[in-house]
From TrEMBL:
Keywords: Acyltransferase, Membrane, Transferase, Transmembrane, Transmembrane helix. The lineage of its organism: Eukaryota, Viridiplantae, Streptophyta, Embryophyta, Tracheophyta. InterPro entries: HAD_RAM2/GPAT1-8, Plipid/glycerol_acylTrfase. The keyword Ribonucleoprotein does not apply. The keyword Transmembrane helix applies. This is Phospholipid/glycerol acyltransferase domain-containing protein.
Amino acid sequence: MESVVSSLEGTLLKNNDPFSYFMLVAYEASGLIRFTFLLLLWPVIRLLDVCGKGDVGVKLAIFVATAGVPISEIESVARAVLPKFYLDDLDLDAWRVFNSGERRVVVTKMPRVMVGHFVREHLRADDVVGSELRVTRFRLATGLVQVGDFDASIGDRIAAMFEDKQPSLGLGRCHYDSSFLSLCKEQVSAPYLNKNQKHIADQEILPEPVIFHDGRLVQRPTPSVALSILLWIPFGIIIAIVRLITGNVVPPWLARNVTSIFVWRLVVRGIPPSPPSQGSSTGVLFVCTHRSLMDPVVLSTVLQRKIPAVTYSLSRLSEFLSPIPTVRLTRNRQVDAERIKKELSEGDLVICPEGTTCREPILLRFSALFAELTDRIVPVAMNCRVGFFHATTARGWKGLDPIFFFMNPNPIYEVTFMNQLPVEATCSSGKSPEDVANYVQRILAASLGFECTNFTRKDKYKILAGSDGTIDQPKKNGLNINKVVA
């Protein structure tokens, strides 16, 4: 097929209402006040749509979500936050037909800045036709779009894009997308594919996955979800404060029993090792997967004793709120090795060798430094489940991460203890630190049902920041491990 033109809303995306994506921009790029104001306007926007003035409603949503916001913030949200929600709403059948074209064009009523990164990087589109935000000379969005970016103008731009040729196939909702569908040789409403297109849709082809994403909200903020979040926040703040104070005041041996009282659950599997015996020459190094800043705190709660945790870039507020001691590292290999050895000589220690968190069911590449420093290694698989707010962020203030975790209605932490590594699996048997680190990564991934990956902390921030640097891409049947480096 030479070319395919497809509508985004209601075709490539199952949902034909872009309102929730404007809510995401309002919250992530500006804050709770704008988020609330846009939600209050939803009945007006909905009424305009019912009255046949849907374009006016979209323009109103664009204005409220973006007016006065730095365009760099909108671009950051479009790159780091929106792709995950778009991909979760993707109609795979429609996308596979769309992907079969040699030239692929997406049509959207959202501003191009909101969808451009996603459709090019994940849907493999060549061009995007959408509205253009007007920007001041100070690089602030005015909230207005270029004149003529809706209605018949879309058809004119598609015609100009293909010049004297007709697109081979148009995918859309016939009534709403007639402005460009009439230009195509063949028009198809996405749910009603013909036999040939159905054959294409049945193929096992997947779009580029979203490995790293950011933002605080777990669920796409449809009007009902957004209202639930807003109504919960006052209660969430109170219960988060209570949970934090309790965690700092209650003795470790009692903390695990108290957690259920304040509506957050701990699920423990495996047998935790005993505390270090009197006169022990070195403590145990707990090697944990890294899902949030709470990992070491939760581990200490389960073990009913305060165990120091290695940290790389913990905020001062998080250090202040932490109920356990923290050991700040410098990323200088020699200095960090000495600090870890010193802590192990005094007792047990927690380390997360991924160096940063990842929300998807994968493990990042493990730094091999921990394997060089001790043979008393206990792998611990950590995982957390939240309902409203993610407990980690790359763009926001990381000091609020524990607060957002505890603001969730019923957060769950799962802790799975593995057996201590046998001597033959450590460096004492002649294995390289890289081999040991890879082995620990594999058994932890298997325990969680996750995949291993080459990605590192540097790759995560490179992707979220939109760097042009190249990185290894995931393979279809799993994410292969390359050699680990510290």
